[in-house]
Amino acid sequence: MAPAIMLAADTKLSSANTGFMLICSALVMLMTPGLAFFYGGMVRVKSTLNMLMMSFISLGIVTILWVLYGFSFAFGTGNSLLGYNADWIGLSNIGLTELWDGYTIPVFVFMVFQLMFAIITPALISGALADRVKFSAWALFVALWATIVYVPVAHWVWGADGWAFKLGVIDFAGGTAVHINAGAAALGVILVIGKRVGFKRDPMRPHSLPLVMLGAGLLWFGWFGFNAGSWLGNDDGVGALMFVNTQVATAAAMLAWLAYEKIRHGAFTTLGAASGAVAGLVAITPSGGAVSPLGAIAVGAIAGVACAAAVGLKFKFGFDDSLDVVGVHMVGGIIGSLLVGFFATGKGQSTATGVFYGDHSFDQLWKQCAGVFAVLAYSLVVSAVLALLLDKTLGMRVTEDEEISGIDQAEHAETAYDFSGAGGGVTGTVAAPALAAAQTKKVDA
């Protein structure tokens, strides 16, 4: 995220920057439906709608919470751990043309841009929990997690008085606040709720790889707004550098993942291409404003191989990360954040240099380590505690019979595909058995 800056006293609203940031906000919003398709194609057919809904519900819940208090606590001036601005509670006292802290965009524009980040972060967690979580429990978890975990971490990393921001931790667009945060939370929750029925025994292959590729494409497209927009329209070329590095690192990671799985498993898979692209997007998110395009190639390639290797750890260690949120988002976020400490050139978003540049100091690397492991530990522990409390009260999981028969029907009374004829949803599902019985009776007659 762009640092706090001081412009001339007569700084005025820029319609160009405002328009650009509104477009970027819309692109980031599109990433949540893109994520829904990406995850929805990766699950078995009986869980498709539930997976879509676990992302879409975040658009509703987090939007309301962000307006009520989330934005105030995340970006208000408070202390190093949490912010607060009474005027921003309910967005009740913000002028339409009031500018965001030294920039040429309105506070409302910055607020809505950050809202889209807050929406997608808990949605990322959902992929680890596929097939087995009650929708009502998930919705409550999203509300609690966004409040207790996301809002404070966003303040640490991007708030003007947040401890990580003041320390000098570089996180351009969310390697710590979004991806490590979500990945660590996913690990904490799955350690509490346990494995799917049939984990390691039954085939759990993606039911629609075209849907996965569509989702990956929407994520890639939206990520340009996610990353380039995080410089808030500053006219110094850093946003353009981030745009270029986003494309470069994603391409490198996709190729690296495919090369790894060809050597390891003997095939180039579409799922590997999609997952590799996402791994590259994750890794370049914290680092893209600080590295050169050659550095972006290195970041992407390292992340592609490391994340491809990491997704297999769930079988080795026995935790059921359904759609590899830990392996891609947590591991990719860690790699991208730490590699800033090696590849930062000092010519991008800040003058800080990594081990391979400048005076070859480890100073920035230590700062990155502090940010990475603080966010990881906080999110892991608090998310596990939240999941445990919900599990002991509401119950986090559907019953074993509901999981086996299909969570879509159990939780939503719908199915993603109607193979019985025209129509769908509840009507098609309910009518099919009656139609079959009628046909049988007719044959008997």
Could you walk me through the main structural features you see in this protein, from its secondary elements to its overall organization?
The chain crosses the membrane at residues 20-39, 51-75, 103-125, 137-158, 178-197, 209-226, 238-260, 267-284, 290-313, 325-345, 365-390. The chain is mainly α and 445 residues long. Helix content is 66%, strand content 0%. It has 16 helices and no strands. It has helices at 15-42, 48-75, 107-125, 135-158, 163-167, 175-193, 209-228, 238-265, 270-287, 293-310, 313-317, 325-343, 363-393, 400-405, 407-412, 425-444. Helix 3 crosses helix 4, helix 4 (135-158) runs antiparallel to helix 6 (175-193) and helix 12 (325-343) packs antiparallel against helix 13.
What distinguishing features does this structure have?
globular; mainly alpha; single chain; transport; Ammonium transporter; Ammonium transporter fold; ammonia transport; 445 residues; membrane; disordered C terminus
Describe what is shown at a glance:
Residues 20-417 form the Ammonium transporter AmtB-like domain. The protein is built from 16 helices and no strands. It has 445 residues and is an all-alpha fold.
